[in-house]
Every structure is written in structure tokens, then in C-alpha cells.
Amino acid sequence: MGRIVSNFFISMDGVVERPDQWHFGYFDDEMGEVVGSGMASTRAILMGRTLYDEWSQYWPDQGDEDFGGVINPMPKYVLAHEPFEARWQNTTVLSGVDDAAVAEQVRALKERTADGEVTMSGSATTVRWLIAQGLLDELALLVHPVAVATGQRLFEGTGTVPLELTESRALASGVLLVRYAPVYS
Fold first, then answer.
1. Per-residue pLDDT tens over the stretch 81-98
2. Run of H or E including 57
3. Collapsing DSSP states into helix, strand and coil, what is residue 46?
4. Which end of the chain is more exposed for a tag (fewer CB within 10 A), N or C?
């Protein structure tokens, strides 16, 4: 069965919102290698509706250079409360009458991607939902040595979420790569 891995740039105080405001000063070749290796096993992208709306307005017009060449042809799956017509190439909308129906579609997606990972990025709300449904396999966090103080945090209003550390290392920039697996009871 495939795995769902969520990747985040995150501040020391847990903020994941607007990394464009605080992340780029820490991005270097070493971090690029970490991000690139994470994409190497990616077979599909999973995202929430808000991220889809943002990315589908930008990436299709960027051509095949850099990340556009990766994201545009790749299969994309969007979790949405209501069905909608997706116009970005290779996009499938996963929606249903309730959480259980959508979760079943995500489980089927994991089964179809048995040879790789479904990468999920950019939405703390979607990560929280995936964890609540027992569907997230790994959180891959690049923890930046900065306190942002304002913005959405990864775990807001979730209660306790037990995690098991599976990898950690410090990058030369002071950013920490930490990987956690949610512990489902």
C-alpha cells in the first residue's frame, strides 16, 4: 500500500502559514536536496481545495521549468466538501456525502499508489483531517530556526496527537529535518 507523506516548512513555534514570509532565507542546496529527494518517490499530490485554488491559478502557466515541470503532469487529488469541476490537468476531486466516504476514496488512492508516496503539502487543515481518519503515514517537517508568532499552526485545536520520531538531522542552515509517524491506537 502506498503512503501519504505530508511535508511542511514550519517555524520553531509551529507556524506553517505563509512560509514565503520567513522560509527563503534558509533555503540552500542542502535543503533543495531534501525537498528533491522527497519528490523522487512521489506518485501523486494530495491537497485541499484552498491550496488547489491557489496552485491551479499559478502553476499551469509556469510551463515545464522547475516545479511546474513536476506538478503540472503529475496526478493531483483534491479533497473537497463539495464536488467541483477541476480544470487543471490530471486532477481528480475526492468528495462525498461525509468524511467516511471521502476517507474511503483516499484509502483506495493509497492502494493504487503501492509503489510510491502520495505527497501532501501546504494545508494544516488537510493534515489534521488525514490524522483524524487514520490516513497520514508520515509528517516530514523542516523546522526553521525562527519564531513567527502569528499565523496558522500545524496543530490548532486538535487535542493530543501522539507521534513517533523516525528520523532527525540538522542541516547546516540550522533547519532541522524531522520525520514523525502518527501513532494510531
1. 889 999 999 999 999 889
2. helix 49-58
3. strand
4. C
Architecture of the domain whose range is 3-182: 3-Layer(aba) Sandwich (3.40)
Angstrom distance (rounded) from CA 132 to CA 110: 16
Distance CA(161)–CA(146), nearest Å, equals 23
The whole-angstrom separation of Cα 132 and Cα 126 is: 10
Q: Would you state the pLDDT for residue 152?
A: 92
The tens digit of pLDDT for each residue in 41-83 reads 888 999 999 999 999 999 998 877 778 888 899 999 999 988 9
Distance CA(106)–CA(45), nearest Å, equals 12
Taking only the tens place, the pLDDT of each residue in 157-176 is 888 889 999 999 999 999 99
> Do the Cβ atoms of 33 and 102 come closer than 8 Å?
no
Query: Domain map of the chain by residue range?
Result: 3-182
H or E segment and range at residue 30: helix 29-40
- Count of Cβ atoms closer than 10 Å to residue 85 Cβ: 6
Identify the residue whose cell numbers are 502557466: 61
Residue 182's contacts (CB-CB under 8 Å, 6 or more residues apart) are 131, 136, 137, 139, 161, 162, 163, 164
